[in-house]
Amino acid sequence: MESRTEDGYKAVVEMEDGFIFNIQTYVLARAYPSMILELSRNRKISLKNNVIVAPYISERSAEICEDNRLGYFDYVGNCWFAAHSIYISERGNKNPAGEQKKQNSYFERSSTVSSLILRELFANYRKVWRLKYLAESAGCSIGQVSKVVSFLVRNAWAEKTVDGYAVSEPEKILREWSIGYGKKTTEAIYCYSLDAIPEIEEKLKKIRQENSIAYYLSGLSGGVRYAPVVRYNKIHVYLSPEDVRETLRLLDLKRVDSGANVIIFPTVDASCLKGSRIIEGDSVVSPVQIYLDCMQLKGRGEEMAEAVLKREILK
Question: On the CB side of 109, how many CA atoms lie within 13 Å of its CA?
């Protein structure tokens, strides 16, 4: 170390070949992505040989550091530094303090309130929101909205402007949301029908009309209504719990442990139905819900999710 500074220290490194270079180190008590982004913008430290040191560098913070050519080191072994002939890289070590787990809770299936707020944001992700109006639109308190928006801002997925708050990284929010959403599985009823998939879908329309049973297609069967990019041989459908038994009877479905071609999700949390649409006579969950559900599917689910993302969510 050559000298201390207000927020870190300066050091001089001399290589064996005689090459000498300086390092400016910034020591942070917390390394939120927004703090690192602001540091790189305001101080213009993204030139050369600047290093962030903090107790923990998250994946998002690491991404921002590397994009801005900022070196980093944390106390659990995550690091990245490139200068002269030196290259050091280590990522993926978890935060023992458990802060990441707390943050990911905003994206879990059980987080009904944050789900409503996020869905309202993605109804038009380009809109700039005042907290009051976002709270009214989502049907939540300003305090609840403030927590979710602050979480997005801390992670540099949204930003505060003079007119309010705006989503800045919609794709990254959705990808992180899908990861958190998939950590806990939802209840599902696996069934088999002798009918072909188009016949089952026509029967679903019929029981909605004749028996007032609401259904909502999701997964690949719902996704093709927005982006017909893959073929599918299973139907994923949301139903009210009280309608499940009658639907099984009317569709002549048999519960199975394997080989299902109809998968029913009893709807406990109505937030997943927010933004649902009628497309050519079929009830379909919103593009956001299609994305979240398809990202959990094996095979071509991710392909469908990406297609719906590009064609419907980010259009």
Answer: 17
What is the pairing mode between strands 189-192 and 254-255? antiparallel
Residue 138 gets which letter from DSSP?
H
Cβ atoms of 103 and 151 closer than 8 Å: yes
Element (H, E) at 217: strand 215-218
Nearest C-alpha neighbor of 97 from the set 117, 69, 127, 75 = 75
Residue pLDDT, tens place only, 68-120: 888 999 999 999 998 878 889 998 888 876 555 555 689 998 899 999 999 99
Cβ neighbours, 10 Å, residue 47: 10
- Helix, strand, coil percentages in the chain from 3-state DSSP, rounded to 5: 40, 25, 35
**Kind plus residue range of the DSSP H or E element containing 59:** helix 59-67
Structure tokens at 250: 């009317």
What is the spatial distance between Cα 154 and Cα 158, in angstroms, rounded to a whole number?
8
Q: CA–CA separation, 270 vs 276, rounded Å?
A: 11
- Of 67, 6, 10, 56, nearest to 30 by C-alpha is 56
Strand partners, 26: 8, 52
Cβ atoms 237, 250 nearer than 8 A: no
From CA 208, how far away is CA 237, in angstroms rounded?
Answer: 13
Question: Please, how many CA atoms are within 13 Å of residue 169, restricted to the half-sphere of its CB?
Answer: 19
Could you report the per-residue pLDDT of 166-180, keeping only the tens digit for each?
Answer: 999 999 999 999 999
Quote the pTM value. 0.86
How far apart are alpha carbons 7 and 27 in whole angstroms? Answer: 6
